[in-house]
Amino acid sequence: MFINRQQTTFALITVIFFIGSLRTFAQESINLPQAINYALTQNKELRRSALAIDSGSLGVTGAKAEFQVSVRPEGSVGFSDGQKSWNYGLRTSKKFDWGTEIIARGMRSTSKFEGGDNLYRDSIQLEIQQPIFRNFGTLIHRETIIQANNTLRSASRKLEIQKADLIIEVVRTYENILRLKNQVRSDQESYKRMDGLYRVTKAKEVLGRTTRIDTLRVELLRGQALSRLEVSQERLTSTQRDFAELLGFSPDTVFDLSPSPKLEFKMPEPEEAIEIALKNRLDYAQVLQDYEDTTRAVRIAKRKLFPDVRLVARQEWFGQGPGISESRGINENIWFVGLSVDTDFNLTRERVALGQTLISQTSSSETINIVKLSITRQVPQQLQAYRRAREELKIAEKNFKLAEGRSKLARRLFELGRGDNFSVTDAEEAYLQAENQLLSARAEETISGYRLFQTMGTVIETPEELKPKSFLRDK
Q1: Cα–Cα distance measured from residue 277 to residue 285, given in angstroms and rounded to the nearest whole number
Q2: What is the pLDDT of residue 474?
């Protein structure tokens, strides 16, 4: 009966090792920078989010189309008592960002009367329109382009923030895989040690040098070691699938991960780190842009209270007569200069709109203060977290060496008959705990370092025009 149980246990261990080895066959060896590069170029969620950039670029092109040269045909056909008329021609116009619009027309008109008389008219017209007061200047007419550019910047910032979050997730998953691989190896060795201890304890029970209770206790610990090994292997497999998806590969892809390089950089002082964050954090840049938008909206809303007056100057050269030859002469001209007014004296809606934009401006100003205070709180906290992670790693390394030495000594004394299995199992549990703490501390140090970079806005190189300092410089 004893032999069958032993054979069954070893067969189960062999199956677990074999399943794990199947997933490690023909693995691609990569390091952490390569993994980050794979994620940034192949991650499916990131590639979908990048479509917003293309949409924003099209929006900018569409907004600029308003100031391009416009060429379009014009024509009409009409019938009235005793008269038929039609005209056709070409209209060309160009609008400028000050609101100035230049229009050129070439038209031919024909009118036929019941008496058989005809009237032909050819004309060339040049017209200049210039809004004044309400719709004068670049503030009004470049607003659509500015909004389109800001929409594009917002989409770009959102994508860059998503990239930074993805990098942190890749680092976290990468470190977890390394930790779980070491955990599986540790659990395998732990099981071997507990199995060896079980064999020695069983042999001593046969010789009457220990009790059945001691043997059952060690057998229980051996079973728990086997259970830990199975759980660790399952967690490793699941994490490897998540990692492959993050990198844009098939979930069944398994990578052989190189140990992550130790972060070597000079830690800045809290004041310096806060200054770096305020110059690089994209969420801070976004609230600054929102405030600029609301400030500009207030100025536009105030302009809407002005009267809508347009200055019009027109010069027309034409020729007309009963025959086509007379109309082609274009030997006459007429000019016109005047004002066009289109104003509603009821400005209730405009005043309401102004009040709403003022509220939005105040809200945006408060949001800037909130985000700034949040940054000044987050940066020192993350600095402290990284320092603590480094110190905890040093302590974990020291404790692991002590626990390892204690475990070896306890097993040796037990094998020599100078100690009991309680000392061995207690030392084994302390050793496992110390090793787990060491693996977790190694992973946490790297993850905390990258989180510090993310908090300061430097985890990934960002285009200068998206950063807060571009706004501060423009001011």
Answers
A1: 11
A2: 43
Sign of CA dihedral 61, 66, 72, 75: positive
Distance CA 445, CA 391 (A): 9
- Contact status, residue 328 vs residue 122, Cβ threshold 8 Å: yes
**Alpha carbons 297 and 146: distance in angstroms, whole number:** 11
**E-state strands within 273-331:** 308-321
Does residue 86 sit in helix, strand or coil? strand
CA distance 188 to 183: 8
Separation CA 242–CA 252 (nearest Å):
10
Q: Are 360 and 290 in contact (CB under 8 A)?
A: no
Concatenated DSSP letters of 369-381: HHHHHHHHHHHHH
- In the 8-state DSSP scheme, what is residue 323? S
Instruction: Give the torsion through C-alpha atoms of 233, 236, 237, 243, to 10 deg.
Output: 180
Rounded CA separation 467/475 (Å): 14
CA-to-CA distance for 200 and 411, rounded, in angstroms? 10
What is the spatial distance between Cα 167 and Cα 173, in angstroms, rounded to a whole number? 10
Tokens of 439: 């693996």
Tell me the chain's radius of gyration from C-alpha atoms.
Answer: 40
Listed in sequence order, the residues at least 6 apart from 9 whose beta carbon sits closer than 8 Å to its beta carbon are 195, 226
* Residue type for position 239: T
- Residue 255 near residue 264 (C-beta atoms within 8 A): no
Q: What is the DSSP letter of 116?
A: S
- Residue 442 contacts by C-beta under 8 Å, 6 or more apart in sequence? 175, 178, 179, 393, 396
3-state secondary structure of 336: strand
pTM for the complete prediction?
Answer: 0.80
Q: Which residues of the chain fall short of a pLDDT of 50?
A: 1-25, 473-475
Token representation of residue 210: 């220990």
Instruction: Tell me how crowded residue 3 is: count the other CB atoms within 10 A of its CB.
Output: 7
- Are the CB atoms for 163 and 460 separated by under 8 Å? yes
Residues 289, 153 contacting (CB under 8 angstroms)? yes
Give the pLDDT confidence of 354-404 residue by residue, as tens digits. 999 999 999 999 999 999 999 999 999 999 999 999 999 999 999 989 988
CA 47 to chain centre: 11
